[in-house]
Amino acid sequence: SDLRQMLMTKSVENIQFLPFLTTDVNNLSWLGYGCLKQDWTLIAVNAVGAALQTLYILVYLYYSPAKRPVLLRSLLLLAVLAAGYGYFTLLIADARMRLARLGLFCSIFTISMYLSPLADLAKIVRSKSTRCLSFPLTITTFLASTSWTLYGLQLRDPYITVPNVPGIVTSVVRFWLFWRYPPGQDKPYRPLHA
């Protein structure tokens, strides 16, 4: 929906850049994990995800009036990825240890991504409005994290299973918030009289 909005309005107004960047890092990290593990499911899904996120970043950069900060953040992402690649491939010789450390990194990063929307929890409860939440994104997060949890359980891979459980939990919390504060029920704010 963000990409569609950028293309229709030819603007990045009200669209945050950081989610595109962090999701790209997440996809590229899991792609590396899949390559090390030789898991074609991880490779295919995360290659497509990384390609789409990179496309979103390029579209955002194209329509952004302030290109310099977007470009600097993107270059920082590339520098972090290059440093990570160097660390995981050059400094860790043992393949099992490399897989374990990369799996741990991917898990921690994924958990932080799933927990980040809860930062708005107090604002949502205070305002009694779910306007800042995306219902389609909540559904997608729930389905994706549930699928990856089941896949991780099937493979008996805790690096895939564990970080996706918070995605299920945070999605359930967001579903509850949508139930508790339905989007159409937002209380209108009246200006204060002076």
From TrEMBL:
The chain crosses the membrane at residues 40-63, 75-93, 99-121, 133-153, 159-179. It is a multi-pass membrane protein. The keyword Repeat applies. Keywords: Cell membrane, Golgi apparatus, Membrane, Repeat, Sugar transport, Transmembrane, Transmembrane helix, Transport. Pfam families: MtN3_slv. GO terms for cellular component: Golgi membrane; plasma membrane. It is found in: Cell membrane; Golgi apparatus membrane. Its main location: membrane. GO terms for molecular function: sugar transmembrane transporter activity. InterPro entries: SWEET, SWEET_rpt. Belongs to the SWEET sugar transporter family. PANTHER family: RAG1-ACTIVATING PROTEIN 1, SUGAR TRANSPORTER SWEET1. This is Sugar transporter SWEET1. It comes from Steatornis caripensis (Oilbird). The gene is Slc50a1.
